[in-house]
């Protein structure tokens, strides 16, 4: 019992000794001018002991006598002090005030001296996504800038700064690459965009969206981007810059040898939740009756009622000339001749099949898009001369079958210091863009979405059409004029 009492007393004395080693630190966190820093965080590094200052900067924290305190606050440099300190004065971060931005004609100025709004994005942020069009990477990164992306492979991307200014003219921002203006106007005209402009034969013209100039800028060659928003910022470029300017500063050569390699893969699929929803109740036709043209048949079947293969028997045939789906209601017990019953290469040739909705609708037509982007950059030089040489290969497989886009970009630049204040620079940029199977736009035959949305039968299986193509290397149609005739297509 005596031993236990002695041990208890010793433990109690140790606790009192430990308690005597702590202290309560109170104070006020202020800035260099003595103004309170609200809601600063005061922490004891290495221990789970943290408090937050009040709105007036006051705080109180219990720590060991020899403890170190770390004080942090938004917009201020971290302050490290000790428990014996009586003053807690923090220094403001001035990195944004001292930041240098590139303005008109490539002039470098401190951000806090500019009389207009300018926002900068680093080249690393732009190339991080490894996309083929760097403008898309600006989306959500710059305030007051609207990025309108095309949804086709290699399509145009519109960049609008501070909203639309004209209803009739282009609202595109002007791109300036190392001081050289580049027109980023959208080449998509009314005929391409809508397809409603007709040719000499009174047919919709339509066309393809071949993209705009900004899409051909190598994202791996960009050092920084500066968005100039005000009229004063763009005055040196005249009326072309009325919609703002995107200043592109490319990478330069550096002293010593350097090699940088970047590679990336992106994968994409269509969002089926936003795709057309096809009803599964009615099949081919504009009406649920009629279509028969023979005297011996009934005219109220909703199908063609003909002798399909010269057997002397009248059969129900899907009205293949009709490109709508408000015909006879589907009935799995009803057997009819579908479009591929008249294709001699099909395993459904001369076979009747149930009148049901297609198992695979047009959403199955689209494939997985895969984009590969690879870049190598070589830099080097000495005291008076530097150079850079970059190569980028971007290969994109689109969501449309047989569609692809290949970009080969080469960038070379060199600088030579002739005198202390005189430097000679040269730059060569080479771009080659090869596209196949680009998406058609507008209301015309080049746009498959237009055909799927309006001119289609819900009983036609898209994968059966695909099989017919690979089986024959021909586009066998479901839209026969009269499948019972040799020249029915």
Global Rg: 36 Å
Please, what is the average pLDDT? 80
Which stretches are poorly predicted, pLDDT < 50 over at least 5 residues?
A: 1-20, 293-297
> What's the CATH H-level superfamily name of the domain at 100-252?
TonB-dependent receptor, plug domain
Spatial arrangement of strands, main beta sheet: 10-16-17-13-14
How are the elements arranged and paired?
Blueprint: H1 2-19, E1 22-30, E2 41-43, E3 50-52, E4 58-64, E5 68-72, E6 79-82, E7 88-89, E8 100-102, E9 108-110, E10 118-122, H2 123-127, E11 145-149, E12 157-161, E13 174-177, E14 180-182, H3 190-194, E15 207-208, E16 222-228, H4 231-234, E17 245-250, E18 258-268, E19 304-307, E20 314-317, E21 331-337, E22 352-355, E23 369-381, E24 385-397, E25 404-419, E26 422-436, E27 440-441, H5 448-454, H6 462-472
Task: Describe the fold and architecture.
- This protein is mainly β.
- Among the domains are: 20-89, Sandwich (Immunoglobulin-like); 100-252, TonB-dependent receptor, plug domain (Ferric Hydroxamate Uptake Protein, Chain A, domain 1).
- The protein is 10% helix and 34% strand.
- The protein contains six helices and 27 strands.
- The chain has helices at 2-19, 123-127, 190-194, 231-234, 448-454, 462-472; strands spanning 22-30, 41-43, 50-52, 58-64, 68-72, 79-82, 88-89, 100-102, 108-110, 118-122, 145-149, 157-161, 174-177, 180-182, 207-208, 222-228, 245-250, 258-268, 304-307, 314-317, 331-337, 352-355, 369-381, 385-397, 404-419, 422-436, 440-441.
- A five-stranded mixed beta sheet has the order 10-16-17-13-14. Strands 18-23-24-25-26 form a five-stranded antiparallel beta sheet, with no helix packed on it. The chain has a four-stranded antiparallel beta sheet with strand order 3-2-5-6, with no helix packed on it.
- The N and C termini lie far apart (110 Å).
- Residues 1-20 and 293-297 have low confidence and may be disordered.
């Amino acid at each position: 019992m005596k031993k236990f009492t002695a041990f208890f007393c010793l433990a109690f004395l140790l606790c009192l000794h430990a308690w005597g080693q702590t202290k309560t630190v109170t104070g006020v966190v202020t800035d260099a001018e003595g103004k309170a820093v609200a809601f600063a965080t005061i922490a004891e590094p290495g221990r789970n002991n943290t408090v937050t200052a009040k709105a007036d900067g006051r705080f109180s924290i219990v720590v060991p006598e020899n403890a170190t305190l770390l004080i942090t606050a938004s917009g201020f440099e971290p302050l490290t002090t000790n428990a014996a300190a009586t003053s807690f004065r923090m220094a403001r971060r001035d990195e944004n005030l001292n930041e240098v931005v590139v303005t008109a004609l490539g002039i470098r100025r401190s951000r806090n001296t500019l009389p207009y709004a300018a926002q900068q994005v680093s080249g690393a942020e732009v190339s991080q996504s490894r996309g083929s069009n760097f403008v898309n990477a600006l989306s959500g990164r710059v305030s007051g800038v609207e990025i309108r992306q095309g949804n086709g492979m290699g399509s145009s991307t519109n960049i609008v700064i501070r909203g639309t200014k004209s209803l009739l003219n282009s609202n595109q921002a002007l791109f300036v690459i190392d001081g050289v203006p580049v027109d980023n106007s959208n080449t998509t005209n009314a005929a391409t965009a809508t397809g409603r402009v007709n040719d000499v034969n009174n047919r919709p013209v339509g066309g393809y969206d071949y993209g705009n100039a900004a899409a051909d800028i190598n994202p791996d060659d960009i050092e920084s981007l500066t968005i100039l928003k005000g009229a004063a910022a763009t005055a040196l470029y005249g009326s072309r810059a009325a919609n703002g300017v995107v200043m592109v500063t490319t990478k330069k050569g550096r002293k010593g040898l350097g090699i940088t390699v970047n590679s990336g893969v992106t994968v994409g699929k269509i969002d089926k939740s936003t795709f057309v929803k096809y009803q599964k109740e009615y099949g081919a036709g504009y009406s649920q009756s009629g279509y028969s043209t023979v005297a011996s048949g009934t005219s109220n079947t909703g199908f063609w009622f003909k002798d399909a293969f010269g057997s002397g028997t009248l059969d129900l045939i899907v009205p293949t000339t009709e490109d709508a789906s408000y015909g006879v209601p589907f009935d799995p017990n009803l057997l009819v001749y579908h479009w591929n019953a008249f294709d001699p290469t099909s395993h459904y040739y001369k076979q009747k099949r149930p009148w049901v909705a297609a198992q695979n609708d047009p959403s199955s037509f689209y494939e997985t898009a895969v984009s590969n982007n690879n870049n190598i950059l070589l830099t080097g030089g000495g005291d008076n001369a530097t150079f850079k040489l970059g190569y980028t290969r971007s290969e994109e497989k689109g969501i449309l079958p047989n569609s692809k886009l290949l970009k080969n970009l080469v960038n070379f630049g060199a600088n030579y210091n002739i005198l202390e204040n005189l430097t000679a620079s040269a730059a060569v940029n080479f771009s080659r863009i090869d596209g196949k199977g680009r998406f058609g736009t507008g209301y015309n035959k080049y746009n498959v979405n237009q055909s799927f949305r309006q001119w289609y039968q819900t009983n036609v299986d898209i994968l059966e059409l695909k099989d017919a193509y690979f089986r024959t290397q021909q586009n066998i149609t479901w839209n026969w004029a009269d499948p019972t005739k040799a020249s029915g297509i």
